[in-house]
From TrEMBL, chains A, B:
Protein name per the record: Cyclic nucleotide-binding domain-containing protein
Record-annotated Cyclic nucleotide-binding domain positions: 10-130
Signal peptide: none
InterPro entries recorded: cNMP-bd_dom, cNMP-bd_dom_sf, RmlC-like_jellyroll
Pfam families documented for this protein: cNMP_binding
DNA sequence: TACACTTTTTGACCTATGTCAAAATTTGTG
DNA sequence: CACAAATTTTGACATAGGTCAAAAAGTGTA
């Protein structure tokens, strides 16, 4: 079965017509580690679903590579600010493990929303969930020690250390790689 | 004119029936400074629109009062995690300036979504915007110095110092009140 | 198996910002 | 107006975690 269709069905009942149309529009692609799905300055046109693999978003701050977030399979990913507001992206999107992706464009989604009320609902529910997640993660994050932040992250992504290297994880938490290394060494 | 209806019309075309129904369902209330709209442990049942006034969300971390976010008029506010997932709230919602509020309950919104497709769309667009905002604010926030964080916040909320006291603002930024005071003193 | 490259760990040192306490200032109220 | 309460500022000092550099460990590949 199409994993993205299954994912959508977790949220809503999908009509047969909508299902068929999504499958026709969707772009299925295998992408190798290291490939960039989006560059800074370009506008994000597509919303990706990760069937398998791992992706990160990052940007350069004062010359340093700072990871913003890491996404495992069964995640929906784009640069929200850029995709939703049609503005140049402030971040890169990079594949960090060979990945299988399914994507549709922004414009295709607009058509689907209008054509199928259940997809409008899917959109609402999906965005709701993203908010609840973001809200939950950031709450109480400030004023945590480096160790506490790392432990919180492990609750959210128990297998993150298998998916991304230390430098990426450390910068997600706003701490240096050396500090994270010391924390892990107990 | 009803300010919340106007707000909705910024996002969608609202049918006359939907408009009438929202106005009938909506609870209009004046709330005094200091009142708590939601307590930790209780589930958020309502989505508020702030016509005038200021509201903050906060929680206690290691015995300290930590402000999570501050909302001025024309904001939509609830405890997202609690409201959307029907779980006990991890934060308080407190009125910090006498406010005029308009609210509907979660259940009322579910009915409205089903009854009026344009409101389902409103929901999607509203949540999209919240994501774009959150996404934008947090990006690059890590690895900033206390001064840079404060300057970033001022770009988002130019008049925040008029709405909330220093301690609230400092904890929003994850810095101590003393540090913020020193930054402002140049 | 060995070489080259990448990633992680360790060490030495330093600084931004936290903490605690008290003084100064501002705000609210009878 | 004057006092009490709340808020902000200032001072002295402590420390978590940053930086830079180098060593160690891990990984891929010919």
């Amino acid at each position: 079965m199409d994993p993205f269709i299954n994912y959508i069905k977790l949220y809503i009942d999908l009509s047969h017509e909508a299902e068929t149309e999504i499958q026709q529009l969707a772009l299925y692609e295998e992408v190798a580690k290291g490939h960039q799905l989006l560059e800074v300055g370009k506008t994000a046109r597509r919303l990706y679903f990760i069937v398998s693999g791992t992706i990160r978003t990052f940007f350069y701050q004062k010359g340093k590579d700072v990871t913003y977030w890491i996404y495992p399979e069964n995640s929906v990913i784009t640069s929200w600010h850029s995709y939703l507001l049609k503005k140049p992206s402030a971040e890169y999107i990079e594949v960090i493990e060979d990945s299988m992706l399914i994507s549709l464009s922004y414009d295709e989604w607009q058509d689907l929303y209008s054509k199928y009320p259940e997809l409008e609902r899917f959109g609402r529910l999906l965005f709701q969930e993203q908010i609840a997640l973001l809200d939950d993660f950031y709450k109480g994050y400030y004023f945590m020690t480096a160790k506490e932040k790392y432990e919180l992250l492990l609750q959210f992504f128990p297998d993150i250390t298998l998916r991304a290297n230390l430098g990426y994880i450390a910068s997600m938490l706003g701490i240096s790689q050396e500090t994270l290394s010391r924390i892990r060494g107990k």
